[in-house]
Amino acid sequence: KGKAKGQKGKKITLKIAKNSIRISFDGGRRLDLSKMGITTFPKCILKLADVDELDLSRNMLKKIPSSIQNFQKLRWLDLHSNQLEDLPEAIGTLQNLFYLNICNNKLTTKNLPEELNLLKNLRILNLGLNCLESIPTSLGALKELKEIGLFDNALTTIPNSVKKLPKLKKLNAERNPFPDSTKQEEHADSIKRIETLYLVQEKDLCCSCLKMCQDKRDKLNKLTNITPSPSKKQSFPLLLTPNSSAKDNQEEWRLR
């Protein structure tokens, strides 16, 4: 019985969904179903399609249905840390979307819908921790894009159409197999507005992630001859990796 329950995942009822609606910092209605053990998209939430934000992160979802297009008011969609192998073409109909996080899934370049380039108001896009071998040049159509995460994929290059987006300020392409470090630096140098993204704090990291960041910080300190002050709070600016221990309050992830 327990095994069958685990395979089916938690059943989300309309009552549970209604009780999971929160008011976001800017007064919008946010449906928060993160960390609920969900394995299939709950059809009942289609009755709550007028929400402004939808958080389905840190579940076990393998598919997002085309009915996602019912959420036409959606401005903020978080699907990170699931098991998604593709996205529906219908995602391109969410014209009000400015934040889309699909980090830490199983997305491949082939299964990345071309309709992503229709999200004309998108400002933050996180594609990190997937299986992308290349980035579609069509993403260059996202002229409002300000931040993009491409870290921990299988990229060997970043298209000029993406690097030269007019409003791009932050780009993270760490830990990709670029041909060599020199060429990787060239990618960074060509983006004059580049900054490093970070979305979680030290206290929110699991032991392995914390050690990885500490090692990387120590290496950077040696390269720059900077000795970290023990009284100064440690930070890890190269981290953009939401995981199972990522902080519950994600207000600072949002575009203000």
TrEMBL record:
Region (Disordered): 233-256
Gene Ontology, cellular component aspect: cytoplasm
Domain Disease resistance R13L4/SHOC-2-like LRR: 68-194
Keywords: Leucine-rich repeat, Repeat
PROSITE patterns named among the record's database cross-references: LRR (PS51450)
PANTHER family tied to this protein: LEUCINE-RICH REPEAT-CONTAINING PROTEIN 18-LIKE, PTHR48051
Protein's name in the database: LRC18 protein
Species the sequence originates in: Fregetta grallaria (White-bellied storm-petrel)
